[in-house]
Amino acid sequence: xxxxxxxxxxxxxxxxxxxxxxxxxxxxxxxxxxxxxxxxxxxxxxxxxxxxxxxxxxxxxxxxxxxxxxxxxxxxxxxxxxxxxxxxxxxxxxxxxxxxxxxxxxxxxxxxxxxxxxxxxxxxxxxxxxxxxxxxxxxxxxxxxxxxxxxxxxxxxxxxxxxxxxxxxxxxxxxxxxxxxxxxxxxxxxxxxxxxxxxxxxxxxxxxxxxxxxxxxxxxxxxxxxxxxxxxxxxxxxxxxxxxxxxxxxxxxxxxxxxxxxxxxxxxxxxxxxxxxxxxxxxxxxxxxxxxxxxxxxxxxxxxxxxxxxxxxxxxxxxxxxxxxxxxxxxxxxxxxxxxxxxxxxxxxxxxxxxxxxxxxxxxxxxxxxxxxxxxxxxxxxxxxxxxxxxxxxxxxxxxxxxxxxxxxxxxxxxxxxxxxxxxxxxxxxxxxxxxxxxxxxxxxxxxxxxxxxxxxxxxxxxxxxxxxxxxxxxxxxxxxxxxxxxxxxxxxxx
Length: 495
Description:
The protein is an alpha/beta fold and 495 residues long. It has helices spanning 60-67, 82-91, 105-111, 122-128, 177-181, 211-226, 250-253, 282-285, 302-332, 364-367, 393-401, 415-418, 477-489; strands spanning 37-42, 70-76, 132-137, 166-168, 200-203, 233-239, 246-249, 341-345, 350-351, 357-358, 371-374, 382-389, 429-433, 436-440, 444-449, 457-461. The chain has an eight-stranded mixed sheet with strand order 4-3-6-1-8-11-2-12, sandwiched between helices. Strands 13-14-15-16 form a four-stranded antiparallel sheet, with helices on one face. The chain has a two-stranded parallel sheet with strand order 5-7. A hairpin with a 3-residue loop joins strand 14 (436-440) and strand 15. Helix 6 runs parallel beside helix 9 (302-332). The N and C termini lie far apart (54 Å).
C-alpha cells in the first residue's frame, strides 16, 4: 500500500474575503508530493457541537478531531441557503447579482456556461493541477451532483461538468438523489408521500437505514482505492443531515433526554425590527403532518420546540458517527499523521430563534456555521476567534496544496491564522439575503435592507446582545456612520 508522505485531507462539515495570502506558504509544500484532500460538506449544521462548548451535544468524533486541530468560533457563510452558499465556497467570490443568491447558482453560472480557460471551481483548479477528483453526495446543490427535478428520473448532466473525474452516489431504496435527500426509513420520501409527512422521524434502523450511512460506506471504499494511486486526489463527501426532515436512527435519539433540552434563548421578533427581516418557516411547514405550524405571530409550544431540537441533535450525532468512520479509515490507511481535516457547515439554522424554524435570514443563527481544521504540525486544540468567511476556503486550499490561484478571489488564505503567524486580520464577514447586506465585525452586526419596509438599518451589539434581540440602529447612528463604508465595500453591485 502506498502512503503519501504529505497527504492532506480536508473535511468540510457544511455548511472564508482578496486572496493576498494565497501562496504565502506554498514553499512549504513538496511539489513532487502534492497533498490529498478529503472534503466533507454537511447540510444545515450550525456550530452546535461539543467542541464549541455545547456539552449537551454528543459529537465525539468531531470533538476528538478538534483536540488536535483548530476550531473557528466565528465562521460565517455568505448566503444562508444551500446552493448559493456552496457556489460562493466553490468560487471564493461574493455575490454580484441576486441570481447568485439562488439554489440554482451553480446550475446557472457553471453548468449552463460554456467552458472557459478559467477553472469553474477550486476542485476543477486542483484537477487542472494533477489531482484525481471524486465527488460523493452533495458538494454543490444537487444531492448527487446531477441536474434534475425533485420528481424526475436521475439526470445525466453534471452540475459541475468539468470538476470531477468520478461522480458517485448510492441512492439505495430511494432510487434517486432527491428521493434519498428527503427520504424516510420505509423507502418513501417527501415527494412520494405528497408532503403528508412529519418533519422528523425516529427510525428503528441501523446507520444504513438512511442514506448518509450508505454515503459513508461508499466513501470508505473509495478512499481505499484512492490511497493506492500515484497521483494526489480530491475526495468530496456530502452528508445530508441535519437538513430537514430530521430523520435519524433511534440509537442517536436515545443519546438525549428530551426533558433536559433547552428551547431558543430568544424566541421573539427583535425590538425595533420588522417581520420582513424574518420569514414564516415555509420550508418547515411544508412537512404537513407536523405537530404544530410555525409562524411569526405565535411561537410553537416549548414541548414541540424541545422535540424538534431533539430530532436536530439526533441528526448531528448520526452524521458525527459517519464522519468518525472516515476518520477511522484515515488511521487504518496510515494517512492520519499526514492529514488535514476541515469540517464545514454550509450555513446555520434557527431552532425557534426569532420564532423561525429554518435558515434564509441574515441574522447570526443563519450565517454562523461550524468550521474546523486539523493540519499536521499546527498548534493543537486551539480556538480561533477571528472573523472568517466561506469565501476564504478556495485560497486556503490552494495555499495548503501548493497550487496557484487562477483568479483573484474575494476570500483570503487562512494559513497565517493556522500557523499563528499573522499580526493583523480584517475581522469582517458579509452576508446577503432578503434584499439586504449584513456586515459582521468583532462586536457588531450591521444590516442594511434595500426594501420598502422599515427599518432600513438594523444594528446589534454582540457584546451586550448576543442573541440579536434589540435593534439599536436609531440610538447608535454614530456607529452606523463608521461601519457603513465597510458594509458598502462588500456590495459588489448586487443592490
